Amino acid sequence: MTLKFEAWKAFEDIYDVLGNQEFQEALKRASTNNQAKVAKLLHERPELLGFAEEVRDLKRRSIEALGELIGKAMESLERAAAKPYYAGTAEEARTLIGKIIGSGKRIVMSKSMAATEIGLRSYLESLGNEVWETDLGEFLIQLEGSKPMHAIAPAVHMTREKASTLVAEKIKVQISRGSVEETVSAVRRFLRDKITTADVGISGANALAADTGAIVLVENESNIRLVTSTPPVHVAVVPVDKIVPTLVDAFKVAIVQAAYAGLYPPTYINIIAGPSSTADIEQVRVYGAQGPRELHVILLDNGRLKASRDPALKEQLYCIRCGRCQFECPVWVHTANTWGGPTYGGPMGIVWTAITLDPVEAGKLSYLCLGCGRCDEACPMNINISRELRHLKTLATQALRRS
Ligand code: SF4
Asked: Which atom of ligand 1 is nearest to the CA of 375?
């Protein structure tokens, strides 16, 4: 299975959503609410600005030493009794995970852009597995058969009316049209059975600490807690740009990501440093106590190490996927992630598409960028996204001239 992407085809989707009133209304509601929430939070808690500066510095140092950190993380994961794997490409990652899981399993997933990047859900289904997304937004995307429309709010393009109707139709339950409470409750009941009977849980990560091999995951729904602790096997897909030197660094990344996503304080921060175990009987360590007995960690490269050596693109690897630049972008607030590539979207998404898939195709999409620089100002990592987009425009223009 090869993931291909042609930019000109994406323009058809963009034109479609520009004429879709419900899509536009949902984006307007979400971006207005989110912008106000984050502005208020940063005003009331200026210490978060200082945290963001610290994280930018530690991300810069981490990306400079990325190759070394990958090696350290692999060693630490082994020490923690996890099984680490390095995947150079999306295809390698899929194959590794396919071998770990096999077929005929029930799999529950927590929201992971990395999993979307490698086409994991459809690949596992093609092997004969039953796969369920457990993040509410991602579950709505699965029911709709679409793609995530924002880094932390996948179903940002759906109004409450659309979400309730979709859930009622697809899982065959009664929900009052537009009732968020009833929609959440129906999804909870439906997914609870899938989670408690699943063979495998799959997660992403907000950060991975090279010193301990600990994975840090931040959330509000508690689905990540359940997915990573209920099934007997946990597979984590961790893009290598998320590796930072220490557990304290990883914790800071999670705090800043939550704050700039408008979810501060986050309800839960999960730290997972190995499979569950007990040594309560004669101090003999046995794995598989109440949580998973196996933890497999796929360190996904897919263009990132190469980008870390590219002066025009390496800043993007500081990105903590908070989605701030998307809500602030005057183009994204009308297109959502229909603009950006098959997985990522908006200003940051175009650059991620360039890194993980195809710089020239990504460059064609950057023609829609207005060059206003609002993404640069909003980004907690001070990434000069508009400069990266200009670079990609140049690449695409050169390629078009040659063709
Ligand atoms: S580029 Fe910056 S603002 Fe955009 S998602 Fe990444 S860290 Fe957040």
From this structure: 3
Side chain identity at residue 143, one-letter code: L
CATH of domain 65-277+286-305: 3.40.50.10420
Cβ–ligand 1 distance for 385 under 6 Å, the answer yes
CA of 152 to the centre of ligand 1 (A): 11
Q: 311 alpha carbon to ligand 1 midpoint, in Å?
A: 18
- pTM to 2 decimals? 0.96
Nearest CA to ligand 1 atom 6: 319
The pLDDT value recorded for residue 200 is 98
DSSP H helices in 127-246: 136-144, 160-170, 180-196, 223-229
Contact 378 CB / ligand 1 (< 6 Å): yes
Dump pLDDT digits (tens) for 154-213. Answer: 999 999 999 999 999 999 999 999 999 999 999 999 999 999 999 999 999 999 999 999
The rounded distance, in Å, linking the Cα atoms of 277 and 130 is: 28
Evaluate: CB of 323 within 6 angstroms of ligand 1. yes
Residue 372 CA: distances (Å) to CA of 88, 329, 377: 35, 9, 10
Domain ranges, ordered by start, for the chain: 7-47+307-402, 65-277+286-305
Q: Domain 7-47+307-402's class?
A: mainly alpha
